[in-house]
Amino acid sequence: MAEVVTKPSRRIRNMVVKELRLVVKDKVALFLIFLLPAALIGMLWWVMNESDLGGMSMGTGDSGGTEEETALFDITLGVIDFDTTRTYEGEDLSENFTGYLRNMIREMITYNNTDDAFHDLYEKRIKGYVVIPDGFEANLTVNQPTYVDVHMDATNAIDQSTVMGAVQTATVMFRASKLWIRSEIFPSITIEFAPEGGYLESTFGMFIVVMSSYLGIAMTSAQAIVGDTPLRRMLLTPTSRLEVIVSKVLAYVVIGFFQSLLLITLWILVFDLNLNTGFETLVIIMSLTSLTGSSTGILVSSIASTRLQANQMFLFVMFATLILSGFFIDVGALDQFLPLNLGLKVFIDTAFKGLSLLQIWDSVLRLVGFSAAAILLGTFVFSKKPTLG
Questions:
Q1: In this structure, what DSSP letter does residue 331 have?
Q2: I need a surface site. Which of 83, 323, 338, 357 has the fewest CB within 10 A?
Q3: For the chain, where are the E strands, in sequence order?
């Protein structure tokens, strides 16, 4: 009985070793897997150092919002009003400003302290919160510059622009209602949940790392079955198609593990980041992302009949993945199921927000579940093929 149990495992181990040898001999594949993503990190470093964007973590400025964007402010914001001054002859200016802001957004939640607002931002119940400081009305009365603190989530670039658009639009309408020209209200931006280091470096670097771990491995593994001519002879042995699929997935997960080590190390060292989780957690997350990429590529390879079909199908998967990644547009419920989206979410929750893997076990299980489903589907499709193309 023990011998029967060990035979499949031995066959899988041998096929994993064989696949790794093939990849190591393919210099182009190694370049695409390791050097190309590393070059993207280097390019990001060059852009950050050759422009004024490097090290950006907080600041003030105009979001570029216009009144035409009002219809887009389908968000929930929090407001904390600390102003106690009453120097203006008319209405309470802080309440008046809050009223204009309320008209710009779908829902407003009023808080008594910043701790509660910060917690709701952490839990994504609100997209941001505005703190109106004490002295707000007094400063405006005597035409002194007045700041309101706008706190936003560093992990969602779309929400950041929307929040700033709503605050800026409310500010313009509030000033216009008083016919003020010299008096200004400046939003002071505070980016929450950003690692210690540059904001853009951490955000875009994260996207490069996760994207490379998923799409880079998927691209390489998309040729693993359709391009494996000796596999015809192997299938004449007791080797099952499930063993073939599993062994090839595991082989590219090993490649993804070493790729993750390289990318995470470069990303942290080059930009001198201090992430909110341990290095080993990041490697586990990236390995899980590589698992989804490997299983996606193997599924593509099992469906395709030729190398050309595999390339075309991978391009379709790549563009669809990037468009629906949730990094650029809101994709709704798909964000909870698409592998790259899940990889980004798990990475953000740990590296940026400091959660442990146990606290996000549901997202981890979805990553594993997607991989298992892709492996089973790939095995089913592969078993229906009488011959390899």
A1: -
A2: 323
A3: 58-60, 76-81, 107-110, 128-132, 146-153, 185-192
Q: Are residues 225 and 260 in the same domain?
A: yes
pLDDT score recorded for residue 232:
60
Among 88, 90, 108, residue whose Cα is nearest residue 99: 108
CATH value at residue 135: 3.40.1710.10
**Distance of alpha carbon 302 from alpha carbon 359, whole angstroms:** 35
| Predicted local distance difference test score (pLDDT) of residue 132 | 93
Residue 284 shares a structural domain with residue 170? no
277-283-285-288 Cα dihedral, nearest 10 degrees? -170
CA distance 44 to 53: 11
Q: Which residue has the tokens 């390995």?
A: 287
pTM, rounded to two decimals: 0.67
According to DSSP, the residues that pair with 128 across neighbouring strands are: 77, 152
Range of the domain at 363: 2-51+198-383
What confidence tier does 52 reach under pLDDT thresholds 50, 70, 90?
very low
In the predicted structure, residue 387 carries a pLDDT above the cut 70: no
Per DSSP bridges, beta strands 146-153 and 128-132 are antiparallel
Residue 342 has pLDDT above 50, yes or no: yes
**Tokens standing for residue 3:** 């011998």
Decide: 136 and 93 in contact? Cβ < 8 Å.
yes
- Is 229 part of a structural domain of the chain? yes
Task: Measure the CA–CA gap between 281 and 305, rounded to whole angstroms.
Answer: 38
Domain co-membership, 32 together with 143: no
CA 36, CA 11: separation in Å to the nearest integer? 32
Cα R_g (the chain), whole angstroms: 26
pLDDT reading at 65 higher than 60 = no
Confidence of residue 110 (pLDDT cuts 50, 70, 90): very high
Final residue of a domain: which of 138, 169, 192? 192
Domain identity same for 187 and 326:
no
